[in-house]
Amino acid sequence: MPSKSPQNLQLRFTDLDERPDLSEEVLALYRRFGPGRFHAVNGEPSAMGQEPQITDLYDCLGVLVAMDGNDQVAGALAICPYSSSQVTLWGPVVASGHQGYTIGPRLLDRARQALREGGFESVRVLNDTRNRRARAFFLSHGMAPWKDNHLYERQLDGTEPMEAPGVALARLSDHSEVGSIIMTCFPDSSHCDVSLFERERQGYRHYILQASGNIVAVAAVKGLGRRSWLSLYAVHPRRQGKGYGTTLIQGLIGEEYRHGVRSIGLEVLADNTTAIRVYERVGFVRRWTASILVGPL
Q: Can you say whether residue 5 is alpha, beta or left, with left for phi > 0 and alpha for psi between -120 and 50 degrees?
């Protein structure tokens, strides 16, 4: 019997909000697509490259699920927050026994429709450069490469706890100055869309480096679980080029180890050579690279 075309394949769509009973099955499906040739990169940076957890699905804006004629999960596509006008896709991932070229386009079309109705303007995806099949899929569906993004990690084994005078966790009284430096260095960042106190309630820790009584560099680190994540670091514009970034990261590595963290991850654009030199100088190692693909809805 000839295979059904993408248009004629009998599919029913739902999401995990409607069918939370499917969560474990969808999670098992995502776990099949870990780092490597068929990697589906999690759109939440702090979870990239880690084995997916059920909380990763709950942290998404939504998870679209395709059900086949036997009421089995045929595929899934998660929508991860990025900005007020753009989201990051995680997937699509397709179950064994189904063809990606039939399930993937249907999931992508449904997601785009829902996002347009929700007021979003564009979509992005992080495509592991080893996953050539996914790249071909996204390019054939209106997405284009923007830049490459490296994922770096540093293992903390306690053999070299780093001390850096002047590095400390930010106090509540430091938040205004910390926020000012972040916004000056990263005017498009959403980190300060809410108060830093609220960010800390969300699991962030803010580090500062002081010199001569002034805050000269700041960093935001998220999580204490599988791996903490260096979300950003910034050096005051008038204090750049003096090694403060390296000192701050050395210091927070030691502080994170004392918090029980044994691995720190981060992402950095491939063309940000200044930051890459800093990260490699303090022991971060590149694990893999993802191309950032973007497209309209």
A: beta
CA pair distance 67, 75, nearest whole angstrom: 7
pTM (two decimals): 0.89
What is the C-alpha to C-alpha distance for residues 195 and 175, in angstroms, rounded to an integer?
8
The DSSP output letter for 12 is E
Residue found under tokens 């590095």: 167
DSSP letter for each residue of 48-94? TTSPP-HHHHHTSSEEEEEE-TTS-EEEEEEEEE-SSSEEEEEEEEE
Pairing label, strands 144-155, 167-169 = unpaired
Buried b / exposed e along 197-229 (16+ C-beta atoms within 10 A): eebbeeebbbbbbeeeeebbbbbbbbbeebbbb
For the cut 70, the answer to whether the pLDDT of residue 3 exceeds it is no
Token readout for 179 is 């926020």
Nearest residue to 124 via CA among 140, 142, 109: 142
What is the model's pLDDT at position 159? 63
Structural domains in the chain plus CATH codes: 12-149 (3.40.630.30), 157-261 (3.40.630.30)
Q: Given the DSSP bridges, would you call strands 73-81 and 263-269 parallel, antiparallel or unpaired?
A: unpaired
d(CA 139, CA 70): 31
Distance CA 13, CA 109 (A): 12
Taking only the tens place, the pLDDT of each residue in 210-236 is 999 999 999 999 987 779 999 999 999
pLDDT digits (tens, 9 = 90+) for 250-269: 999 999 998 889 999 999 99
pLDDT at site 100: 77
Mean pLDDT of 96-124: 94
